[in-house]
Amino acid sequence: MLILLPPSERKSKAKDLEILFENTKFEFKDEVSEIINTLKSIRENDLEKIYGTSKEKSKLIHEQNLNIFKGKCSAAIERYTGVVYSHLKWEKLDYKSKSYVEKNIRIFSGLFGIVSPKTLIPEYKLKMNVLSLDKFWNPILTKKLKNEPLIIDLLPQIHRKAYEAGSNVKQIDFFHLKNNKKTSAGHLGKSVKGELIKFLAINQITNINDLKSFSFNGFYWDKENFIKKI
């Protein structure tokens, strides 16, 4: 069973090692190089549109991305520090739970495609919804995932465009329910997602039917998605 997660906007340098990305054995280095070559052709006036921040910060991020192969690495699970990952609390998991996370979790990334929690990656910023990266990665990630017996997809919609979901995929979302109408749980859903992963790891869950045992902050499993009545 694989569980697909998005990356996080927030990232940390705290666990950087003296290992450069160029010296790792990352599976999709050629694809990363292709993306970097595309970035090299971006005009300076378009950087703010690509990175979604100020001109000054965009230039710094762009330079960092262009030099990605010289970047110091840390494990993806320690690089990403957003809401999902802060609720997972990787550093507090025991060995057995960490082994579950490494075996079962895969993280989608605009720049790196797909990584495991212990994959060594440098600091970067590049969303899946720019430069048609979802279309770029789609055939690659579809091939990568097609033979998995079961995939639990916890991705947001933009990341779901980066692969073709087959019959082996169960897409799960997080909703508020009010007056029999479902709306996305939005930011709150991220915290539930992190707590869910922690629950799966601690309890070594391998059967989707066991999701009924998880609840958090009013969210419960309705056999299709996680719902909170409001």
Keywords:
230 residues; 9 helices; alpha/beta
SSE blueprint and pairings:
Elements: E1 2-5, H1 29-40, H2 47-51, H3 55-66, E2 73-75, H4 76-79, H5 83-88, H6 95-104, E3 105-109, E4 113-115, E5 120-122, H7 133-145, E6 151-153, H8 157-160, E7 169-171, E8 174-178, E9 181-184, H9 187-203, E10 215-216, E11 219-221, E12 226-229
Parallel strand pairs: 1-3, 1-6, 6-7, 8-12
Antiparallel strand pairs: 2-5, 3-4, 8-9, 10-11, 11-12
Helix pairs in contact: 6-9
How would you describe this structure to a colleague?
36% of the residues lie in helices and 18% in strands. The chain has 230 residues and is of the alpha/beta class. It has a five-stranded mixed β-sheet with strand order 4-3-1-6-7. The chain has a five-stranded mixed β-sheet with strand order 9-8-12-11-10, covered by helices on one side. It has a two-stranded antiparallel sheet with strand order 2-5. Helix 6 packs across helix 9 (187-203). The longest helix has 17 residues, at 187-203. The radius of gyration is 18 Å and the shape is globular. The protein starts with a strand and ends with a strand. The model has no long low-confidence stretch (mean pLDDT 96).
Give the CA-CA distance, first to last residue: 32 Å
Characterize the main sheet: 5 strands, mixed
Number of β-strand runs: 12
- Count the helices. How many? 9
The radius of gyration is 18 Å
Shape: globular
How much of the residues is beta strand, in percent? 15-25%
User: Helices and strands, in N-to-C order?
Assistant: EHHHEHHHEEEHEHEEEHEEE
Mean pLDDT: 96
Instruction: Detail the poorly predicted runs.
Output: none
Structural class: alpha/beta
What is the spatial order of strands in the main beta sheet? 4-3-1-6-7
Specify the helix fraction band. 25-40%
